Amino acid sequence: MEVIPMSEGEQLGAETTSTESVRAETLLEVDGLKKYFTQDSGLFAGVSIDTDEFPPVSLGQDYVKAVDGVNFEIRRGETLGLVGESGCGKSTLGRTILRLLEPTDGSIYFKGEDLATLSGESLRKKRSEIQMIFQDPQSSLDPRMTIGQIVEEPMRAHDMLDREGREARAKMLLEKVGLDPHHYNRHPHAFSGGQRQRVNLARALSVEPDFVVCDEPVSALDVSVQAQVLNVMEDLQEEFGLTYLFIAHDLSVIRHISDRVAVMYLGNVVELADKEELFENPQHPYTKALLESIPVPDPRDRGARGVLEGEVPSPVDPPSGCRFRTRCPDLIAPDAYELGGGEWSHTRAFMRAVKRRTFEAMTAAEIREEFFGGDLPHGEAGKIVEEAIDHLATDRNGDDADDEESRWDEATDLLLESFAEQSICAHERPEYEIEPVYGTERHYAACHLYR
Ligand code: SF4
Questions:
Q1: Which end of the chain, N or C, is surrounded by fewer C-beta atoms within 10 Å?
Q2: 65 C-alpha to center of ligand 1: Å?
Q3: Cα(166)–Cα(216) distance, integer angstroms
Q4: pTM of the model
Q5: How far does the centroid of ligand 1 lie from the alpha carbon of residue 203, in Å?
């Protein structure tokens, strides 16, 4: 399990000013949080049939490991950005923190109290201190209600103030989010997308929360409107002392709003650092690939951009060790072979090309030239590569009875089992602290390159 040491000294850094000390109070701490979903339901859930096995019917449950051992803390008054490709578990994490989803394991300490253990009235009371803003401002507002009623709804649910008090507070909040309080009796359809998200903000703030989970709150808005809503959120944070967990897939939005940034991949946090440190000195290969994928305004620069290759693996059966290893361009050489740097980078590129079948079959000499400049790695590694080439080459010596499909499969299995599966990346879950270049905040990277 991913365990990040978070002593007080590490959280604050070596030197802190008094202002930083005030902000450094931990408001929320997530420790070993997991959220698994069962994959299917119904009468035959968990029953699998394999006619090659005896007995052919077995019982067992597959779990989608949406969030799998996540640790981080959020300090009072800060914005922690949470970024990653869609499907990486960001929204599930946000909803689990709020207990909209039941955690499978782990703790969610909010002001020192573990939300994961609360239920009933005590959980309901805590919920007023934590609010959530969703992506789609259209569907999250009831079209039959006026915006006044919408903003007052959470106050009514928590028995806050009397009718006049709620109306006065709703109007005050509408003004704070940049809407005309005279529009209190209008319905959501009379407002634009950006204005509806402002109504959502006012509603979330009506019960005086300390902490707001913002799940892609500006993704559905035009870019020009996004900046306006983000600026309103920053103003509200300053005025009401709010703390945000801000979930987004868009790195430019994350860069705008965050103080620190956590990068998520396949249910794990793979890098966490101060915003400037993360954007200027990214260390995890996944973070680097995400940053290189940001669209650039000048099309002539496009050739220099990296591309995230391959599919995100299934969260039902995620890769062992480092979750990113099946797509990582920096996979570490197995210790067993004593490969030189050039030998390993050639072997790794060949293995990836075979796995993804990115080249047409050619002669053995042509494959050697194309991927190794004519010289195979020395020793045992070279013999394995030679054998893989022999499966693929058009002038191979192997059994001609094998069809092309199975020869590619054999070469792929041989290379993956001999190299990828022998790497430390496949055996140990990485967790390392890195010396930051920008500032003194801790910089965490889940990558064995820093061992
Ligand atoms: S641990 Fe290995 S596979 Fe994972 S990101 Fe680092 S180098 Fe890549």
A1: C
A2: 20
A3: 28
A4: 0.86
A5: 43
Report yes or no: 28 and 74 within 8 Å, Cβ to Cβ. Answer: yes
* pLDDT tens-digit readout, 231-279: 999 999 999 999 999 999 999 999 999 999 999 999 999 999 999 999 9
Residue having the nearest C-alpha atom to atom 1 of ligand 1? 447
Report how far ligand 1's centroid is from the alpha carbon of 275 (Å). 22
Reported CATH class of domain 8-40+61-129+209-291: alpha beta
Minimal-distance CA residue to ligand 1 atom 5: 447
Q: Which of 290, 324, 450 to mutate to test the pocket of ligand 1 (most atoms within 8 A of CB)?
A: 324
- Cis bond leading into 55, ω under 30°? yes
Is residue 1 predicted with pLDDT exceeding 50?
no
Structure-block tokens of residue 242: 């709010």
Of 348, 337, 338, residue with least CA distance to 285:
348
DSSP 298-317: -GGGGGG-----SPPPPTTS
Stretch (H or E) spanning 37: strand 26-38
Ligand 1 centre distance from Cα of residue 290 (Å) = 15
Take atom 3 of ligand 1 and give the residue whose Cα is closest.
325
Residues lining ligand 1, judged by CB closer than 6 Å?
284-285, 322, 324-325, 328, 330-332, 425, 430, 447-449
Distance between Cα 34 and ligand 1 center (Å) = 22
**Angle (nearest 5°) at CA 335 between 333 and 338:** 85
Kind of pairing, strands 443-445 and 268-274?
A: antiparallel
pLDDT band at 387, cuts 50/70/90?
A: very high
Residues 6 or more apart in contact with residue 449 via CB below 8 angstroms? 283, 285, 330, 332
Query: Residue 140: what pLDDT?
Result: 76
Q: What is the pLDDT of residues 435-444, one digit of tens each?
A: 999 999 999 9
How does DSSP classify residue 377? P
DSSP lists the bridge partners of residue 33 as 70
Instruction: Name the residue ranges covered by the structural domains of the chain.
Output: 8-40+61-129+209-291, 335-422
Q: 253 C-alpha vs ligand 1 centroid, how far in Å?
A: 26
Instruction: Give the Cα-Cα-Cα angle 399, 402, 405 (nearest 5 degrees).
Output: 140
